[in-house]
Structures are given as C-alpha cells and as structure tokens.
Amino acid sequence: MKPLSQHSNYRTQDQSTPVIARTCPRCGHGKSWSSSIRPSDNLLQILFYTPYRCRACMSRFWKLHSSFRLNIFIAAIVLLVSVLGFYANALFQKSPAEQLVSTTQEDNKIKIRAQEGDADAALQVGMGYIGSNSHKNYKEAAKWLEQSARKNNTEAQYYYGLSLLGGRGVIQDYKAGFFWIDKAARKGHPEAQFSLGKMYRRGTGVEIDRARAYLWFNLAAAQGIQDAARNRDSVANHMALAEIIAMQEEAYRIGVSDNTKLTENSIVNTPNNIGLQ
C-alpha cells in the first residue's frame, strides 16, 4: 500500500505551502495549510470560503474568508448607522403640516412688521404675493411694494416701478413707473439702470433721449447686466462723439456718487465702430 502522503487526493506540506493556524473540524488539530481549488468545488464556497488541509488527519475543510468577514462587519455597521440616521431624521423632521404652520407663523410675523412700517418687511410681503403660485395677488403686491418704496427701499422702488409699467395690480402709468425706476437707478440698482436705458431709448414715460439711454446702459453694463453693453453700443452708433464723451463722464460721476464699483476704464470706453457725426 502507498503511503498516505503519496495518494493523489492529498498534499503534503512543503516549503512553498506555509502552515496556518486553522483548527480542523474533524480531529481538532490546530495547524493546516491552504488547499488547492478543485473543479468539483461549489462556486459559492470558492467565492466566500478558503479551502484548507489538516496537517494531522489530512481532511479537507473550508473557512470563511477573513476579508469577507471584515466586509460583512463593516457593511453591518454602515447599515446600522444608516438605519439610525433615518429614524433620527424622521423623529426630528417636521411633518408637512408642521412645516406649513411654521411657515405661516413666520409670514405672519413679517406681515406684522410690515404693518408697523418696516420697509424691508413690506418688500418681503409684496414679493411674496408676486412669487407665490397659491397666493399670487398683484394688487396686494403693488400695495406693499408702494409702501416700501415710499420708505426709500431701493428694491421696492424698482419693482413698484415695474408694476406701474406693466399695470399689474395698479392702473398702468408709464410716467409714474419712470419716476420710481429712475429713483432706484440713481441709487445704483443695476436692473433699474438697464430698464431706465430702455425707457429713454423707446420713450416710455419720458421723451426719447439716446444720450440718456447710452448713459444708463453704460452704467448697467459696468455692473455686469447682460445685454446692456450691446444696447449701449447700438445707441452709440447714432450719437456724435462729443455726446458719447459727455455721457461717459456723467456716468462716471453718477457711478461714484451712488457707490457703484466702477473704474474709468469700465465707463470711458468709446467703441471703434461708432458713427462720428
């Protein structure tokens, strides 16, 4: 009979196969070495387990991958943290009804301040009536915007002017719209400056004045308003060079007086393609 070590179904320990401390489930021996994967081995075993050969009884057994056990442990921790986070969020998050009550209470506080004469609060109330899909009310919006505008709120002056130009919640009035937008523009409001330039160019609420249109387009362009530079250069094509230079100088003076961040280069920039009349 062949020695046990010579049977083809068994491997003996050699220098290339290190002995590993793995307890054999059959004989209880504490040392074994890794066994080769066989074609007949189950795929799940191969994926999640490592085969070993007992050094004493030569029986073959499987142990779960140590890295797989670690991955399972980490995954369990992550899952536990996620579940706890979900329940903590659900515990402390307000329900839709509670959120609505909270929002309503905050809106009521703002409205009370507006009723007491707070210009910023009046602006918030007015803009709320414009932006809300469920409570859109242009008449209420115009009322609160006017209140804020009369208390010298620049943003409210601009939006109340737009309400008058469009006839939203108030009787359409171009001259009154021009009045309020002009106020906001002179205080450095960039969108108001651009709107004022268009009003001068078209004669909306004021006589057509290309030079003044150029002036306000120039100021708006210096503050980065899209399309302001294009409108400015278009108007400049119909102006004399002396007019352009005069409006550039005035734009710089206005920009300094309203604390707009301007430089001489951002204002005094005569296009090369203007018509010299």
TrEMBL record:
InterPro entries: Mitotic_Regulator, Sel1-like, TPR-like_helical_dom_sf. Pfam families: Sel1. The keyword Ubl conjugation does not apply. The chain crosses the membrane at residues 68-88. It comes from the Bacteria. Keywords: Membrane, Transmembrane, Transmembrane helix. Signal peptide: none annotated. This is Sel1 repeat family protein.
